[in-house]
């Protein structure tokens, strides 16, 4: 009887929209509520859900399987025309030395092979996309290394393909950790994965401060990394988690911000070629700070981001086709095909009006959808599709880039990503910014991102210069540099004590293992933790030696 049900599900799921990008990632806390939220997800236009019961619940002991929970979950999703993006999640307690489900290495790799075999044998017809672990580079794998992850990936790939060659195996990392992906491929995962999954939460959050330029570099950076490792450049790219939080209680400003960033994030992801995009998550949970990511609140009321999801899927369709971009006088414009119809999605970081075919369209931070596009507008978007995105300059051929800090920063290839961590100070001739050590917390840091055209993947040797001076009348002041390297974020290892005096001083840190991909949304920061006094920052520069 159960095998008949699974056959019926396989036939039914094959009719679902394979090429649709609209996903929701579920957390374990609310996953059991799927009978209630699946109809709501279907109403919003969601066509994919990223979730599957963990190993320990599927195989409570060696040789013993418990399929009921997964069968019911799959049946409900299929009934609501939702496909499942699965995963081989974590470890079974009996497979680890201390009984933990987030610890590696496993006692016996054969246990892992048996688990993968059991999952693919039963569900490989209905669930054909499987990530290996979840955020192995983060807090979900104590003792994890690229070599261990490479072995898990390689064994999952070989085991799954032997059962069903159509099954796809995915690499997955927390944040946008290209360095870990690169190390995993080099450690033995090469040619043993079919797609790559990232979780660019911080890059998405940067859209609140005009971070479109950096966000639009994500797919290109991944493809550069794949090419450098001899992997297929057209490997499918998925975002299997991203999101921003809003307050648990209704909050007009926070809810509007969440919905705005949601739409921007999806559009920018589609425009650069991500195949599937999964918002985290359907409902809750709270994280102890009175906020959560859900498109539904804990009381099941719909947030504005839920309405934004429904609007986006209705406007662009089940399987939207990206046609190309439009530079609307500095505003952002992206054209999609919905069957035979066309839609422009556009917004601006400052209010302005643009003309389209004789019409004036007002733009602001909230994305708007424009139908009935002139033929010449559609043709222009198509002609732009293969061209680099136009927002910002191309710094590929210059030797150095800079950011002069002040009331209005002057960016020449470097952007201060979170200017609110520093305060503006007005001097006699110009303004600059202050690292307010006395406040502690984020005021100890000034964050920067270098234009991706200046630091493509593989750019390792860089010189970072900071121009600063002590606060008048202050005591000892200084800083270190934290930067994005091939092995993650790390300190540059050289503390700079800013010399005494009224004049501006500068210091150079030389880096030999840089990897400025924007893993957490920034490339380097000045770090005043341990400084005895405040200081001013006037300029930062990055140079290729």
UniProtKB/TrEMBL annotation:
Keyword Transcription regulation among UniProt keywords: no
Domain GH10: 55-168
Keywords: Carbohydrate metabolism, Hydrolase, Polysaccharide degradation, Signal
Signal peptide: 1-17
Organism per entry: Luteolibacter rhizosphaerae
InterPro entries membership: GH, GH10_dom, Glycosyl_Hydrolase_39
UniProt KW Signal keyword: yes
Organism superkingdom: Bacteria
Record Pfam families: Glyco_hydro_10 (PF00331)
The name this protein goes by in its record: Endo-1,4-beta-xylanase
């Amino acid at each position: 009887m159960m095998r008949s049900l699974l056959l019926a599900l396989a036939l039914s799921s094959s009719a679902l929209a394979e090429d649709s990008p609209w996903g929701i990632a579920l957390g374990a806390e609310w996953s059991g509520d799927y009978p209630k939220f699946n109809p709501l997800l279907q109403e919003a236009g969601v066509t994919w859900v990223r979730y599957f019961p963990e190993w320990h619940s599927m195989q409570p002991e060696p040789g013993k399987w418990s399929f009921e929970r997964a069968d019911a979950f799959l049946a409900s999703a299929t009934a609501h025309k939702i496909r499942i993006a699965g995963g081989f999640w974590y470890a079974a307690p009996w497979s680890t030395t201390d009984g933990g489900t987030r610890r590696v290495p496993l006692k016996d790799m054969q246990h892992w092979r048996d688990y993968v075999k059991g999952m693919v044998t039963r569900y490989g017809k209905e669930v054909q996309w499987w990530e290996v672990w979840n955020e192995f580079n983060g807090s979900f794998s104590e003792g994890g290394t690229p070599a261990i992850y490479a072995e898990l990936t390689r064994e999952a790939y070989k085991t799954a393909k032997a059962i069903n060659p159509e099954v796809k195996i995915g690499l997955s990392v927390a944040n946008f950790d290209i360095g870990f992906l690169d190390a995993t491929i080099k450690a033995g995962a090469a040619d043993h994965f079919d797609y790559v999954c990232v979780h660019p939460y911080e890059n998405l959050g940067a859209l609140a401060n005009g971070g479109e330029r950096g966000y639009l570099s994500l797919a290109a950076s991944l493809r550069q990394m794949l090419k450098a490792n001899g992997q297929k450049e057209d490997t499918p790219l998925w975002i299997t988690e991203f999101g921003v939080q809003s307050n648990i209680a209704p909050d007009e400003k926070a809810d509007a911000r969440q919905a705005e960033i949601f739409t921007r994030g999806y559009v920018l992801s589609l425009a650069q070629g991500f195949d599937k995009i999964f918002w985290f998550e359907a409902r809750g949970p709270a994280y102890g700070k009175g906020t959560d990511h859900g498109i539904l609140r804990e009381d099941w009321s719909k947030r504005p981001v839920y309405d934004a999801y429904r609007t986006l899927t209705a406007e662009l369709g089940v399987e939207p086709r990206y046609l190309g971009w439009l530079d609307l006088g500095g505003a952002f414009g992206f054209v999609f095909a919905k069957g035979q119809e066309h839609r422009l999605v556009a917004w601006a970081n400052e209010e302005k009006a643009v003309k389209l075919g004789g019409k004036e369209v007002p733009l602001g931070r909230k994305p708007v959808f424009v139908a009935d596009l002139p033929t010449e507008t559609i043709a222009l978007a198509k002609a732009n599709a293969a061209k680099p995105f136009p927002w910002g300059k191309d710094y590929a051929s210059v030797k150095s880039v800079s950011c002069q800090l002040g009331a209005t920063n002057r960016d020449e290839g470097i952007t201060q990503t979170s200017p609110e961590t520093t305060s503006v100070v007005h001097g006699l001739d110009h303004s600059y910014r202050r690292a307010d050590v006395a406040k502690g917390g984020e005021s100890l840091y000034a964050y920067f991102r270098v234009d991706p055209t200046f630091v493509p993947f593989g750019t390792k040797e860089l010189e970072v210069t900071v121009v600063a001076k002590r606060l008048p009348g202050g005591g000892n002041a200084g800083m270190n540099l934290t930067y994005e390297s091939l092995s993650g974020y790390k300190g540059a290892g050289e503390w700079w004590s800013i010399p005494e005096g009224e004049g501006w001083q500068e210091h150079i840190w030389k880096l030999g293992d840089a990897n400025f991909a924007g893993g957490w949304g920034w490339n380097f920061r000045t770090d005043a933790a341990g400084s005895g006094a405040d200081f001013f920052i006037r300029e930062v520069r990055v140079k290729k030696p």
